[in-house]
Write a structure and sequence with these properties.
There is one protein chain. With 226 residues, the chain is an alpha+beta fold. The protein has 8 helices and 7 strands. Helices cover 42% and strands 19% of the residues. The strands form 2 sheets. A 5-stranded antiparallel beta sheet has the order 1-2-3-7-4. It has a two-stranded antiparallel sheet with strand order 5-6. The mean pLDDT is 97. The structure holds flavin-adenine dinucleotide. The site of flavin-adenine dinucleotide has 9 residues, from helix 6.
Length: 226
């Protein structure tokens, strides 16, 4: 199922392997034992593993997502090294004329100092409207120049130099659950930039359907990554 994020973005959970029971059985192999279904004892074991930071069994479930997001969101996302990325190449593909423009409530100011910023909605409608138009006009200009360079036969790898960080890109993201919990702790957080958080919120909903017991213990344990 495709989940739209903002005007042009999306997330699709394309495939996954394993769930709560796989975590239990990766732990139980230590004692040469196996559970066939998820009961109270298995639920308790996942809680124990989570609280005591026995992390490796949480590497059993693996997820693959198809993600379409602006480049500035990918810059943050791709800092998560314990996962795999395959992305559309702007050397080989012509970039579509799409860019992210924040909706009205997302136009914000930055107050405070590093580590203690607050981001506040711009209340003045006229000012917000001007900001939106400036972002759109600059982005349109960049894409106009890009398309002109492509038409003139300039290599895509050179034409792309004029594109802004709010252009869209698409990637396959493959990640195990332990690393995904780290992603969710950091990116579905009030400290994360709102745009990447919107993606993390949707990912968390999808993952909760696959590993509901683990996600309950993760939240009960203060979202500390095992
Ligand atoms: C709110 C916020 C603000 C940020 N601001 C900045 C910023 O200003 N500048 C900036 O550069 N980055 C910034 N980052 C990115 C941040 O520093 C991390 O690079 C990013 O969140 C990925 O986290 P990670 O390293 O835990 O994830 P992953 O790379 O997926 O790593 C997962 C875990 O594996 C282990 N690990 C991975 N690689 C190594 C290694 N080389 N050595 C030892 N252990 C390793 C660590 O335990 C790590 O937590 C920010 C992130 C957030 C959430």
């Amino acid at each position: 199922m495709i989940k739209r994020v903002h005007e042009h973005g999306h997330i699709v959970l394309e495939a996954y392997m394993g769930g709560d029971l796989a975590i239990v059985n990766n732990a139980r192999v230590s004692f040469d034992q196996e559970s066939l279904e998820l009961g109270e004892a298995e639920d308790g074991l996942i809680g124990f593993l989570m609280r005591n930071k026995h992390g490796s069994p949480f590497e059993a479930p693996v997820f693959r997502f198809d993600v379409k997001a602006p480049l500035f969101v990918f810059r943050e996302w791709q800092r998560h090294r314990i996962s795999s990325f395959n992305e559309v190449s702007a050397r080989y593909s012509v970039i579509e004329d799409e860019f992210y423009v924040p909706e009205r409530d997302y136009i914000r100011t930055q107050v405070g100092k590093p580590g203690a910023y607050t981001f506040e909605r711009v209340e003045d409608d006229e000012e917000a409207d001007l900001i939106t138009r400036l972002i759109s006009t600059t982005s349109n200009l960049s894409f106009g120049t890009y398309n002109r360079l492509i038409e003139d036969g300039v290599a895509k790898e050179i034409a792309r130099l004029v594109l802004p960080v709010n252009m869209y890109s698409r990637m396959k993201w493959t990640v195990n659950l332990r690393s995904l919990l780290n992603f969710l702790a950091l990116r579905n957080s009030e400290h994360a930039q709102r745009e990447i958080r919107d993606y993390a919120i949707e990912i968390e909903k999808m993952v909760t359907e696959v590993v509901p017991v683990t996600m309950r213990h993760f939240n009960d344990n203060g979202r500390i990554v095992p």
